[in-house]
Design brief:
Strand content: 35-45%
Oligomer: single chain
CATH class: Alpha Beta
Protein name: Nuclear transport factor 2 family protein
Number of strands: 6
Shape: globular
Number of helices: 3
Domain SnoaL-like: 8-107
InterPro entries: NTF2-like_dom_sf, SnoaL-like
Pfam families: SnoaL_2
Order of helices and strands: HHEEHEEEE
Amino acid sequence: MIQLPNSVKAYFHASNEEQLASFLEAFKEDAHVFDFNREFNDLEAIRDWCKSDILGLHVRFDITDAWEQDGAYAVITSLDGEFDKTNLPDPLLLIHTFKLSDSKIQELHVTLP
């Protein structure tokens, strides 16, 4: 597994430790998050997404694989939390694909593998 940039590591650490301020510090002011078919286009929207979909559900990410390709970082995680797991695979895996600018997250795509 590759060494991940600090902002990517901070994203997962802050999520797992439920540290909203540290989570937001990993992102650029004009960052974009694409979470399946939903889009969040600035820090205020990303903060609301984090509070409801990550911190509010006590989501925990466990990194299982990571690689860099064409300047983007892809990270496969298994996740758990206090959300409805009905009909979801076990373990539930997600791919987080990060594009950075000035060492911060400019764009994040969250998808199924």
